[in-house]
Predict the 3D structure of the following.
Amino acid sequence: MSKNPNHPKKNSSIKVEPIRELRDIRSIKKILDDNPRNLCLFVLGINTNLRASDLLQITAGQVRHCQAGDELTLKEKKTGKQRRITLNKSASTAIQQLLASVPIANNDPIFFSQRGQALTVPSINRLVKSWCATINLKGNYGSHTLRKTFGYHQRIQLNTSIAELMVMFNHSSQKQTLDYLCIQPEEIREAYMKLEL
């Protein structure tokens, strides 16, 4: 089996960034507007804290009748833990548009390739990179960008507490959450700028 040359070496990692600007999120939604699968993948990814591997597990039967406020229960692929996610209006609308656009059996995943096979995490990685490149977004982006974007905007737009975000992301420390969401330097810089004695 050939090794992926872009895969990080053991005990190292490649950090991807969240999409920080709302205008960039709107631009990506606009370019995906005529592709219900990709739009749903993007919208569901940035409106939940699910990993790409967990998004790929969602079946049509789990979400066929979902509405805003409904809960989706999944077993996380990475941790094996049960995860309950509340779907907001954007997420439920995107799911219903996808399901209305193509027939999908209840037991089948909602995200599939053009050949009818389930998408993979590397596929999502390539898609996110291509969407960001299409709108000329500079930085390092990948499948984890979706999850990070959710957390970043929870903190920046809604001022969700670090304690709540730690629970959402199952992190063991505030520092881990701040580092993960790429906001620690920004918040520390702002704290210095607020105080003038």
In short: The CA atoms of residues 132 and 138 lie 8 Å apart. Residues 121-134 form the longest helix (14 residues). The radius of gyration is 17 Å. The chain has a mean pLDDT of 88.
